[in-house]
Amino acid sequence: MGCNLQVQLEEKTGFFFSGSSSSLQPEGLSMLNGSVIDIKDVAFLRDNRTILGGITWQVQRGQHWAIVGANGSGKTTLLRLATGYLWPSRGQVCVLGNVYGEVDLARLRRRIGWVSSSLTEMIRRHQTALEIVLTGAFASTGLFARPSPQDLERATALLNHFGCAAVAATRFGVLSLGEQQRVLIARALMAEPELLILDEACAGLDLPMREALLAEIDALARAPSRTLVFVTHHIEEITASFSHVLVLRGGQVAAAGPKADVLTGEVLSAAMGVCVRIDRHDGRFWPRVLRG
Ligand SMILES: Nc1ncnc2c1ncn2[C@@H]1O[C@H](COP(=O)(O)OP(=O)(O)O)[C@@H](O)[C@H]1O
Ligand SMILES: [Mg+2]
Q: How high does pLDDT run on average in the chain?
């Protein structure tokens, strides 16, 4: 993906650093309230099962959070609650200063970029890569309105930026996993979101592709008005850009706080139920599970 070149491109064009468009002005309260995400005592129950319980989590402006936890620990459910695609059984969800239940979700979602397998399932796979990116302008999964020339220009530039210009007219369903992930990140950036949620964005990528995408994510984290939430199974994917880490276990918060406090062998061993040792290299944290 030519990461250095792309970072230079951003710095030169201000592509990801440009101001919000008129429909995306921070709305009143979010300027007063420093929290980007404010989740208070949230529970989510289904089929008599507590999938999430007693979750309290705050993301402040200027922070970038990574979320880790085993399969089924509730990471995607938590983020579907944060994006308003699920409703909590108990507790309050407040995003960008807006309390869910008192806000027009369709409008708010344009300020939130979301990449998730959960979203990929909702995407109409027969649409072209360009059409998928364009849906990001409307925070919809299909293209129901005619995009403006500016939208077309931005979508094309985003596809170029992510090295996907050659597949712009190709159906999403036939793209490689790496291309699909990059198209979905381009889609998430269409509306210049204040909050960007990447749920297992690196899943299934080979090593060079993963490292290239992590460099892209680092570049996205440098936009001063943007907050990132990044879900991963792999602790070594938590790059220097991330300031805080949330660990979920069995639908509950096992640990949360500044990265250096949470990504320790002691905290992770207790949170994950296996004996973990952490080695730090180049600002990243490499886990090893100790046997016996
Ligand atoms: N709408 C739902 N109805 C029933 N069970 C669900 C629902 N959403 C999630 N789950 C269950 O909740 C648990 C957590 O899922 P998920 O949030 O996808 O975990 P993770 O993203 O951490 O792998 C899983 O056991 C899953 O089967
Ligand atoms: Mg998940």
A: 86
